[in-house]
Write a structure and sequence with these properties.
The structure holds two protein chains of two kinds.
Chain A lengths: L1 H50 L21 H8 E2 L2 E2 L2 H31 L5 H10 L6 H13 L6 H24 L4 H9 L4 H9 L4 H17 L2 H6 L8 H10 L5 H33 L4
Antiparallel strand pairs in A: 1-2
Helix pairs in contact in A: 1-12, 2-12, 3-6, 3-9, 6-9, 9-12, 11-12
Chain B lengths: L4 H32 L17 H8 L3 H36 L5 H9 L6 H11 L3 E2 L3 E2 L1 H8 L15 E2 L6 H8 L12 E2 H27 L3 H9 L4 H12 L1 H16 L3 H6 L11 H11 L3 H32 L1
Antiparallel strand pairs in B: 1-2, 3-4
Classes of the chains: A mainly alpha, B mainly alpha.
């Protein structure tokens, strides 16, 4: 009897003890989560904060103080420009003019390549696929000199069309990989059933694969758009005329110019980051799937 | 799928344009760059006079500034990569455990941690440059140093990327003396150190990519069968032991991917240095990729730039080729 109560008491204290420990542990976890939320959001917070201040409140030594009156002047200057520097508005449009067509064409090529590489493995596909994939890991420095020479010879050097073409070509491997892994999840039985009904190579693609491809297209589109929008190396190498430069190059020039106030630089940085942040917020799960493919974990 | 004769041809034709483009723009161009690296081309006008390995010799064994810069870049790569891998893996794994412990609002926290991955290195560089601008003793601190002041750490005033200091094992220290005695005197030299500027780059790069590492680990953790954890708990394992003896061993393949992907990112690092710090005092924040770009397109020494590009490609290939083989093989055995 006494031992039983002792045991029971021990059991209750243990549970209570564990619960107490559990609570403290939980509170610690939340504290850590909140500290890291601050770490990841701090730079974005600072960009927004600075962008919203009026000019007479811009003071490097008061960087962290809250604005006393709201003003969008920094954003306007960053977009339209000022006497000392050109605005980013036209470069934002340039980036769209490269990223949208390049993304669309990349996705179509990706679907075609992914279809063949997953369902119609021809001989030597086992050699070609790794060679294709290697193309997505190379340091692009190793192809820049011939690239510039060739684009100039083709008379598309320095143009937005040239840059679009470059992004399509070097996007082929990753798009093929994403679609190949995506199509691998479509059961072969389905295709065999269609074949019995008389479907051929093309009708299987257009009537079975493409109608099921929407998620694959979204993943590839987000991945390509983000990469192209954020690209700097190709942009600065291929386009040397400021009127034709994408936003990353323009932002880097603006930030390197000593005549531009830091609040305008922050507003410009936020403008440059906004489209991909927006895509990420709206379509996060698809973004994560592209990211997994990028590391070969389909 | 095995089709009729024409269908096999159709399949090949469908991928042929892409294969031809990659053959030319990747493999053809790599060979072309390789050839340029063996020539005299050193101005805006192409000059394909063959000079053999002279460019490599000048970079690797010369006595000039290009040789110095090359070895400083290698030093920076080693320093940056070790710190960057360490911080991303510790942070990524820790945050993945945090999210995996089923806290409330996990999808919010997960999205916030991964958000910087959607942003370009140029934006990151511009913002972190201002965050890490130290200010002056006369006018006061700025950026994060100002935040340190607010929380009572005002005595901590690092000069971040403006600091030319290089940490290394000096001759007059106990360890330095010991290394000299055992014949490793070449190590006790700033060329085997780590520049202060590197820490600033690591801070910004970790901000940008640790969430990505977290996402990879989290996917791995979610694929560990629940029964395994339950069985361990029934056997009396505590949370630490579950992490140590179940999570860490089962997640080794992910750690391997992370090490390879992040190392190849740091070999190719260019945008962040350009927008955040430039080459830095004494090339403190220079990288091989940055060096290649400046040598080629600013100094117009194309042949020498091509040689640096080839060295860079070899270094990346040493990492990536075994990784690709491993990934594709494990795919076929699945």
């Amino acid at each position: 009897m006494t031992t039983e109560t002792a045991l029971a008491r021990e059991a209750t204290t243990e549970v209570a003890g564990r619960r107490g420990y559990f609570n403290w542990w939980r509170i610690l976890l939340y504290a850590i989560a909140i500290i890291f939320t601050a770490y990841y959001l701090l730079p974005i917070f600072l960009m927004v904060l600075t962008g919203l201040k009026s000019y007479n409140e811009i003071n490097l030594y008061e960087m962290w103080s809250l604005p006393r009156q709201l003003s969008f002047q920094s954003f306007i200057d960053a977009w339209v420009g000022s006497p000392s520097v050109a605005g980013l508005g036209r470069n934002f449009v340039n980036s769209l003019r490269v990223a949208i067509p390049a993304t669309l064409i990349s996705a179509i090529l990706g679907a075609m390549n992914g279809y063949v590489l997953s369902k119609w493995k021809f001989r030597s596909a086992d050699i070609i696929f790794p060679l294709l994939l290697f193309g997505m890991f190379i340091p692009y420095q190793s192809i820049l000199i011939p690239l510039v020479t060739t684009l100039n010879a083709l008379r598309i050097g320095g143009s937005l069309e040239g840059l679009t073409f470059v992004h399509i070509v070097y996007g082929i491997p990753v798009c093929a990989l994403i679609f190949r892994n995506y199509y691998a999840t479509i059961p072969n039985e389905m295709i065999e059933a269609a074949r019995i009904d008389g479907a051929n190579f093309f009708s299987i693609f257009t009537r079975i694969m493409l109608p099921l491809s929407a998620p694959g297209f979204v993943v590839v589109a987000i991945w390509q758009f983000t990469n192209i929008w954020n690209d700097f190396l190709f942009a600065i190498t291929v386009t040397n005329n400021p009127a034709n430069q994408p936003i990353t190059v323009a932002l880097n020039n603006l930030a390197g110019s000593f005549t531009v106030e830091w609040n305008v630089q922050f507003a410009a940085a936020l403008i440059a980051a906004a489209p991909t942040i927006l895509l990420y917020i709206l379509l996060g799960p698809f973004f994560v799937r592209g990211l997994m493919a990028g590391s070969l974990k389909g | 799928m095995k089709g009729k004769g024409w269908e096999r041809w159709a399949a090949v034709l469908m991928v042929l344009p892409s294969i031809i483009l990659i053959a030319i723009f990747v493999y053809g161009f790599i060979s072309w760059t390789g050839y340029v690296s063996l020539t005299k081309w050193a101005s805006t006008a192409p000059d394909y006079t063959f000079v053999g390995l002279a460019n490599y010799q000048r970079i690797l064994f010369g006595a000039g500034i290009e040789t110095q810069r090359f070895y400083i870049d290698i030093r920076n790569f080693v320093g940056f990569t070790s710190l960057f891998l360490f911080s991303c893996i510790v942070l990524g794994f820790g945050l993945a455990l945090l999210i995996d412990s089923r806290i409330r609002g996990e999808s919010f926290f997960r999205s916030v941690f991964l958000l910087p991955f959607a942003i370009s290195f140029i934006v990151t560089g511009v913002v972190w440059r201002w965050l890490l601008t130290p200010g002056t003793p006369e006018l006061g601190s700025t950026g994060v140093n100002k935040l340190f002041e607010y929380i009572g750490l005002g005595f901590f005033k690092p000069r971040w990327f403006t600091d030319p200091t290089v940490f290394y094992i000096a001759d007059n220290t106990a360890l330095g003396g010991f290394l000299n005695q055992i014949g490793l005197s070449f190590v006790t030299n700033p060329n085997w150190g780590i520049s202060v500027g590197t820490f600033s780059l690591v801070l910004a790069a970790t901000w940008q990519l640790s969430g990505y590492v977290m996402a990879l680990y989290l996917a791995g953790m979610r694929s560990i069968p629940h029964e395994l954890r339950e069985a361990a708990r029934v056997d009396g394992a505590n949370e630490y032991q579950i992490v140590r003896y179940i999570y860490i061993p089962l997640l080794t393949p992910i750690t391997l991917s992370v090490v390879i992907i992040l190392s190849s990112i740091s070999l190719k690092l260019y945008d962040l240095s350009v927008s955040m710090t430039g080459v830095g005092p004494g090339f403190a924040t220079d990288t091989l990729a940055f060096n290649m770009f400046e040598t080629t397109f600013k100094a117009t020494r194309f042949a020498q730039g091509a040689a640096i590009a080839v060295i860079l490609l070899v270094l990346v290939s040493v990492l990536i080729i075994p990784y690709l083989r491993y990934s594709l093989r494990s795919e076929t055995t699945q």
